[in-house]
Amino acid sequence: MPVTGVTDGYGPVLGEAERDYSKVDSVDFMKLLVAQIQNQDPMSPMDNSEFTSQITQFTMLDEMEALNGKMDDNILVGQSINNTAMLGLVGKNVTVEGNKTWVEAGQVTENVLAAEGPGRAIIEVTDDTGHVVATYEQSINQGLNTVTWDGQLPNGETAPDGIYTISATVANGETEIPFTTLMTGPVAGLRYENNVGVVTVGGQEYYVSEIYSVS
Predict the structure, then answer these.
(1) By 3-state DSSP, what share of the chain in percent is helix, strand and coil, each rounded to 5?
(2) What is the pLDDT of residues 161-176, one digit of tens each?
(3) Threshold 0.85, pTM exceeds
Protein backbone atom coordinates (compact mmCIF):
# COMPACT_ATOMS: atom_id res chain seq x y z
CA MET A 1 0.00 0.00 0.00
CA PRO A 2 1.60 3.29 -1.04
CA VAL A 3 2.34 5.84 1.68
CA THR A 4 1.54 9.49 1.00
CA GLY A 5 4.53 11.78 1.72
CA VAL A 6 4.48 15.00 3.63
CA THR A 7 4.71 16.84 0.32
CA ASP A 8 3.50 16.10 -3.16
CA GLY A 9 3.94 17.73 -6.52
CA TYR A 10 1.03 20.05 -6.09
CA GLY A 11 0.99 21.46 -2.55
CA PRO A 12 3.38 23.61 -0.54
CA VAL A 13 5.95 22.24 1.91
CA LEU A 14 4.38 21.55 5.30
CA GLY A 15 4.78 24.61 7.54
CA GLU A 16 5.64 27.02 4.70
CA ALA A 17 3.43 29.75 3.25
CA GLU A 18 1.59 28.82 0.09
CA ARG A 19 3.39 29.97 -3.07
CA ASP A 20 2.00 32.97 -4.92
CA TYR A 21 2.04 31.71 -8.51
CA SER A 22 1.05 35.10 -9.89
CA LYS A 23 4.71 36.16 -9.42
CA VAL A 24 7.69 34.74 -11.33
CA ASP A 25 11.19 35.01 -9.91
CA SER A 26 14.63 34.35 -11.41
CA VAL A 27 14.56 30.66 -10.39
CA ASP A 28 11.28 30.14 -12.27
CA PHE A 29 12.75 31.92 -15.29
CA MET A 30 15.80 29.63 -15.33
CA LYS A 31 13.62 26.51 -14.96
CA LEU A 32 11.52 27.58 -17.94
CA LEU A 33 14.63 28.26 -20.01
CA VAL A 34 16.17 24.86 -19.15
CA ALA A 35 12.89 23.08 -19.93
CA GLN A 36 12.69 24.91 -23.25
CA ILE A 37 16.22 23.76 -24.17
CA GLN A 38 15.57 20.14 -23.08
CA ASN A 39 12.34 19.90 -25.04
CA GLN A 40 13.31 21.75 -28.21
CA ASP A 41 12.86 20.07 -31.56
CA PRO A 42 16.27 18.57 -32.50
CA MET A 43 15.37 19.03 -36.17
CA SER A 44 14.69 22.72 -35.57
CA PRO A 45 16.75 23.84 -32.53
CA MET A 46 16.29 27.18 -30.84
CA ASP A 47 17.91 30.03 -32.68
CA ASN A 48 21.09 31.33 -31.03
CA SER A 49 19.84 34.91 -31.12
CA GLU A 50 16.62 33.89 -29.35
CA PHE A 51 18.65 32.00 -26.73
CA THR A 52 20.89 35.05 -26.20
CA SER A 53 17.83 37.31 -25.91
CA GLN A 54 16.32 35.14 -23.19
CA ILE A 55 19.62 35.02 -21.28
CA THR A 56 19.74 38.81 -21.48
CA GLN A 57 16.19 39.03 -20.12
CA PHE A 58 17.16 36.70 -17.27
CA THR A 59 20.16 38.89 -16.41
CA MET A 60 18.02 42.04 -16.48
CA LEU A 61 15.45 40.40 -14.21
CA ASP A 62 18.15 39.44 -11.71
CA GLU A 63 19.61 42.96 -11.76
CA MET A 64 16.17 44.54 -11.29
CA GLU A 65 15.48 42.32 -8.26
CA ALA A 66 18.80 43.37 -6.74
CA LEU A 67 18.08 47.04 -7.47
CA ASN A 68 14.61 46.79 -5.90
CA GLY A 69 16.16 45.28 -2.78
CA LYS A 70 18.64 48.14 -2.50
CA MET A 71 15.87 50.71 -3.00
CA ASP A 72 13.81 49.10 -0.22
CA ASP A 73 16.84 49.23 2.08
CA ASN A 74 17.43 52.90 1.22
CA ILE A 75 13.79 53.73 1.96
CA LEU A 76 13.98 52.04 5.37
CA VAL A 77 17.22 53.87 6.22
CA GLY A 78 15.69 57.19 5.11
CA GLN A 79 12.59 56.62 7.22
CA SER A 80 14.71 55.73 10.24
CA ILE A 81 16.83 58.89 9.89
CA ASN A 82 13.73 61.03 9.34
CA ASN A 83 11.91 59.58 12.36
CA THR A 84 14.96 60.07 14.57
CA ALA A 85 15.30 63.69 13.43
CA MET A 86 11.64 64.38 14.24
CA LEU A 87 12.23 63.46 17.89
CA GLY A 88 14.02 66.81 18.13
CA LEU A 89 10.67 68.60 17.65
CA VAL A 90 9.45 67.64 21.12
CA GLY A 91 9.65 70.70 23.38
CA LYS A 92 10.23 73.12 20.50
CA ASN A 93 7.76 75.79 19.35
CA VAL A 94 6.09 75.16 15.99
CA THR A 95 3.59 77.21 14.00
CA VAL A 96 0.46 75.33 12.91
CA GLU A 97 -3.16 76.11 12.12
CA GLY A 98 -4.96 76.92 15.37
CA ASN A 99 -6.22 79.70 17.66
CA LYS A 100 -4.36 79.15 20.96
CA THR A 101 -1.80 81.49 22.51
CA TRP A 102 0.50 80.79 25.46
CA VAL A 103 1.49 83.26 28.19
CA GLU A 104 4.59 82.38 30.20
CA ALA A 105 6.38 84.85 32.49
CA GLY A 106 4.68 87.71 30.70
CA GLN A 107 5.78 86.50 27.26
CA VAL A 108 3.07 85.70 24.69
CA THR A 109 3.50 83.30 21.79
CA GLU A 110 2.90 84.52 18.26
CA ASN A 111 -0.40 84.39 16.36
CA VAL A 112 -0.85 85.04 12.65
CA LEU A 113 -3.88 85.63 10.42
CA ALA A 114 -3.54 84.43 6.84
CA ALA A 115 -6.15 86.64 5.10
CA GLU A 116 -7.42 86.33 1.54
CA GLY A 117 -7.75 90.12 1.27
CA PRO A 118 -7.21 93.41 3.13
CA GLY A 119 -9.58 94.51 5.88
CA ARG A 120 -10.00 95.26 9.54
CA ALA A 121 -9.72 92.54 12.20
CA ILE A 122 -11.53 92.54 15.55
CA ILE A 123 -9.78 90.11 17.89
CA GLU A 124 -10.97 88.72 21.21
CA VAL A 125 -8.86 86.81 23.74
CA THR A 126 -10.57 84.43 26.15
CA ASP A 127 -9.18 82.44 29.08
CA ASP A 128 -9.75 78.76 29.83
CA THR A 129 -13.18 79.56 31.33
CA GLY A 130 -14.36 81.38 28.18
CA HIS A 131 -14.13 84.82 29.84
CA VAL A 132 -13.04 87.63 27.48
CA VAL A 133 -9.82 89.12 28.87
CA ALA A 134 -8.88 91.41 25.96
CA THR A 135 -10.29 92.90 22.76
CA TYR A 136 -8.34 94.81 20.13
CA GLU A 137 -8.53 95.84 16.46
CA GLN A 138 -5.90 95.77 13.75
CA SER A 139 -5.59 96.54 10.04
CA ILE A 140 -5.03 93.42 7.95
CA ASN A 141 -3.31 93.04 4.60
CA GLN A 142 -3.73 90.19 2.15
CA GLY A 143 -1.44 87.36 3.20
CA LEU A 144 0.21 86.72 6.57
CA ASN A 145 -0.38 89.23 9.40
CA THR A 146 1.04 89.06 12.91
CA VAL A 147 -1.78 89.65 15.43
CA THR A 148 0.00 88.63 18.62
CA TRP A 149 -1.75 89.73 21.80
CA ASP A 150 0.41 91.92 24.07
CA GLY A 151 -0.60 89.94 27.16
CA GLN A 152 -2.14 92.96 28.90
CA LEU A 153 -5.46 92.84 30.72
CA PRO A 154 -7.93 95.80 30.63
CA ASN A 155 -6.69 96.92 34.07
CA GLY A 156 -3.13 97.14 32.78
CA GLU A 157 -1.87 94.06 34.56
CA THR A 158 -0.06 91.24 32.82
CA ALA A 159 -2.20 88.18 32.17
CA PRO A 160 -1.42 85.12 34.33
CA ASP A 161 0.52 82.27 32.75
CA GLY A 162 -1.69 79.84 30.84
CA ILE A 163 -3.28 78.98 27.51
CA TYR A 164 -5.69 81.49 25.94
CA THR A 165 -7.87 81.44 22.84
CA ILE A 166 -7.78 83.95 19.98
CA SER A 167 -11.05 84.60 18.10
CA ALA A 168 -11.22 87.02 15.17
CA THR A 169 -13.49 88.47 12.52
CA VAL A 170 -12.09 90.19 9.44
CA ALA A 171 -14.12 92.47 7.19
CA ASN A 172 -13.62 95.11 4.51
CA GLY A 173 -16.62 97.36 4.95
CA GLU A 174 -19.63 95.07 4.76
CA THR A 175 -17.66 92.26 3.13
CA GLU A 176 -16.28 89.50 5.32
CA ILE A 177 -12.76 88.40 4.45
CA PRO A 178 -11.92 84.68 4.71
CA PHE A 179 -8.83 83.93 6.80
CA THR A 180 -6.96 81.21 8.65
CA THR A 181 -5.62 81.59 12.19
CA LEU A 182 -2.15 80.25 12.95
CA MET A 183 -0.68 79.66 16.38
CA THR A 184 2.81 79.01 17.72
CA GLY A 185 3.08 76.58 20.60
CA PRO A 186 5.29 73.86 22.10
CA VAL A 187 5.24 70.29 20.82
CA ALA A 188 3.97 68.24 23.76
CA GLY A 189 4.24 64.83 22.11
CA LEU A 190 5.14 62.89 18.99
CA ARG A 191 3.84 59.63 17.57
CA TYR A 192 4.00 57.85 14.21
CA GLU A 193 1.09 56.86 12.02
CA ASN A 194 2.05 54.66 9.06
CA ASN A 195 5.62 56.00 9.39
CA VAL A 196 4.33 59.59 9.28
CA GLY A 197 5.08 61.86 12.24
CA VAL A 198 2.14 63.32 14.17
CA VAL A 199 2.82 66.03 16.78
CA THR A 200 0.60 67.29 19.62
CA VAL A 201 0.30 71.08 19.96
CA GLY A 202 -2.25 72.76 22.22
CA GLY A 203 -4.02 69.45 22.82
CA GLN A 204 -4.53 68.87 19.09
CA GLU A 205 -2.67 66.58 16.72
CA TYR A 206 -1.03 67.70 13.47
CA TYR A 207 0.91 65.88 10.78
CA VAL A 208 4.51 67.10 10.59
CA SER A 209 3.74 68.24 7.03
CA GLU A 210 1.21 70.72 8.49
CA ILE A 211 3.90 72.62 10.40
CA TYR A 212 4.50 76.09 8.91
CA SER A 213 7.72 76.79 10.82
CA VAL A 214 9.84 75.68 13.79
CA SER A 215 11.33 78.11 16.30
Answers:
(1) 25, 35, 35
(2) 999 999 999 999 999 9
(3) no
- Shortest CA distance to 184 belongs to which of 113, 96, 105, 104? 96
> What is the assigned CATH class of domain 96-186?
mainly beta
Which of 130, 126, 149 is closest to 138 using CA atoms? Answer: 149
Instruction: Enter the DSSP assignment of 116.
Output: S
**How many CA atoms lie within 13 Å of 97's alpha carbon, on the beta-carbon side?**
10
64 phi/psi in degrees, rounded to 5: -65, -40
3-state secondary structure at position 126: strand
Closest CA to 201 of 71, 42, 91: 91
pLDDT digits 0-9 by tens, 91-136: 888 989 999 999 988 899 999 999 999 999 999 999 999 999 999 9
Backbone angles phi, psi at 119, to 5 degrees: 175, -160
